[in-house]
Fold:
Amino acid sequence: MGRLRKLRAISAVALAGGVAATLAGGATALASPSAKSVARASSSAPFVVADSSSVQKLDPDIITNFLDFQSLGLIYDTLVEENPKLQVAPDLATSWTFSNGNKALTFQLRKGVKFDDGSTFTSADVVASLKRVQAPKTGDASASFISSLSKVVPEGPYAVKLVLSHPDVSILEGLTSLNLAMLPAKAIANGSIAKKPDGTGPFKFSSWSPGNSFTVVRNPSYWGGKPALSTIKIETVPSEQSIASALQAHSVQLGLLTEPQVATHLPSTYKVQKVLSLSYRALMLQDKTGPLANVNARRAIACATNRKQIVGDAVFGQGVAVGPVPLGPFASNPVSSLCPTQNISMAKSYLKAAGMPNGFSFTAITSTDLDPTSSAQAVAMQSQLAQAGITMNIQNLAGDAYIQDWLKGNFQAAFAENGADPDPYVMYGRYFGTGANLGVPAGYSSPALQKLILQGDEAASTPVQTKLWSSLSANLTNNAVWIWLFDAFNYAAVAPNVHGFSLSPVVGTSLQALRSTTIS
Amino acid sequence: MSELATPVVTPEPMDAVNGEPAARHRTWFGTVWRSRNGRIGFILSALVVLGAIFGSLGVTPYPPDAQNFNASLKGISLAHVLGTDQFGRDVFSQILQALGVSLEIAGISVLIAGGIGTLGGIVAGFLGRWPSALIMRVTDVMFAIPAILLALAIVTALGPSIIDSSIAIGVGYIPIFVRVVRGPVLALREADFVRAGRVLGFSRSRLLFRHILPSVAGAVAVQTSLALAWAILAEASLSFLGLGPPPPTASLGEMVSESSSLASTAWWTLAGPSIAIIIAVIGFNFLGDGLRAAADPRSKTR
Structure:
């Protein structure tokens, strides 16, 4: 019995001792299968990109998840693209001209471009692709980018004219979105887009294991020249700490990170690239029912929020507090016309005005699968709102559950990371514009806002646009439509033997540099 | 009647059966304390329980969820004995609150598992035949599913909260109690005092609850202590995976999860909750060992 007792004692110590190691090192343990399964970098082994998120969908028109954009961006091209300097640059269109008072846009198309199925890219594909975007049954996440498009007219096989219902120069910026990717007309007719990606990009689809990995292989007939990397495997590694472990185990060549505490403590052999991302974090509110339908209740939330502290807590100060338009010539300044900084007494005044002097409660959803910092944002904000008597319950969801609920507007509040653009119309037309295709998750609509967005889009001169977009920012923050929080840095940890990769601030296309990346 | 009832409410008659009445004067606590593991277990468990009581009553150095932007990630100091986390919250205060939550969940889950499992074990052991077969087959099926997996499935379906986590963990440990109790009951139902009770016309429920149940109390107590350790571990695991009570309620697993990325910069945020889990698990395991020694008639004579 003594021996048995000793054994039990030893096993208890071992068990308990293992708890911390297991829990804390869970990340490492989770990473190890991938470390085993992935061969080390060599010319034949896949180039492994690690991300804590996973690819959710294969149809480029309906994707909303950042990693979906990044992954499918390797397969698909758009007519024009946004370069790292945030300028519109040629992609499948080599040049373009606006005419008829900005009511027509003509593209000259690139010749000799082939889809993965071997068919040639022509104006017929452009017509079919844009018609698919506009078809309500498609549910394109960025359909409103081309809401002004009334007709697509092919002008021979390699030119196409977009006829617009009103002057709209923003459409060019909108056409850079992968939600408006060029798809083969044949695949659209077959209905095979959502099952087997077929694009003109530098890589071809190889395999997809949902929740696990997404693999592409080099497209030898890519119009921009054959990429050096033969296979790219985008692996889902459940936490950024696990990505760091995988990087240290040399089983990953490129780690995509958002948590500064992980990115800044990697081995010095890794080159860590850092860019202020073209996205913004916001607390999106469903403003149509419950306490959040009351504008003063929403204003109380806005005034109780301390953005600087959230930046400090969630991303360790590695970000900047922003308003509705985070960057570019029309950036919101100040970040909020209502309460640029935390003002608890003002928040309490708004609560009184809302008829809820003792506060109210609501639930906010987060997904650490999609944004690892969202939980910290929520915890920080929960404490701030409590100072004004507002109770914010937090519900963390798995990535796919979050996306489903988000798209259906099935939430009271949602911590979200949304793509940004220098053009406010591209950013908010799809949320608050007339016929906004993301009006449901946006949770708010007003004729005044719709009018502002349309006027801003149609404005011909920059001063007029500046005035209108400034009014848009003021309208959004005065009505506390959402609570805009901050813009943060994105990080890429690049293995020492990887050359030619540079992280783009354009989140959706941040992996495009892989087409010219080499490995030694 | 009392002549029959007395021997079965305590384990002493068993000593008498073994011809070792010398241990009668020694209390359970004395026996637990005499064993080294029992002593360590008792002290550690007492510390954990004490911390949990303080945490639950809000007797903490700082409010556990009070954030202080200016005190973010401060190391160990007199002001913050276990440092602060990224939100400037006092880690020690958070641990005390988390221990309260952990113990509450562990306690409720063990109550569920112990209550249902003991009843099931007694019924299966005493009645035999088809009730036993039915209960044991259900138990076998439940045994086939790892407890933590079952807990994960249940908490995913019910949602994360203290009660739901308790149910999720408790259900997973019911089969262990069934098996632990059924064995002794099988032996006891043929014991002389039970036969005598039958002869005297005692009802089944009286035999079960007044005579047999007290006789298996020792085994249940040992299993309860061990199950508490496992339940604390299971609760930490669920919280680690984000399925514990939502913020601002502190939980040890979530603290470990959140601080794992800070291990290289703020080790204390990881060390505190990890050590708390270790102490709680070792404590209740060792206490279980001590209780087992106390319930074991042979070990009392040493």
Summary: Residues 50-61+90-189+217-300 of chain B form a domain with the MetI-like fold fold (CATH 1.10.3720.10). DSSP finds 14 helices and no strands in chain B. The interface with chain A takes residues 35, 37, 65-67, 69, 72, 86-87, 229, 233, 236-237, 240, 242, 246-248, 253, 256-265, 270, 274-275, 277-279, 281-282, 285-286, 289, 293, 296, 298-299 of chain B (CB under 8 Å).
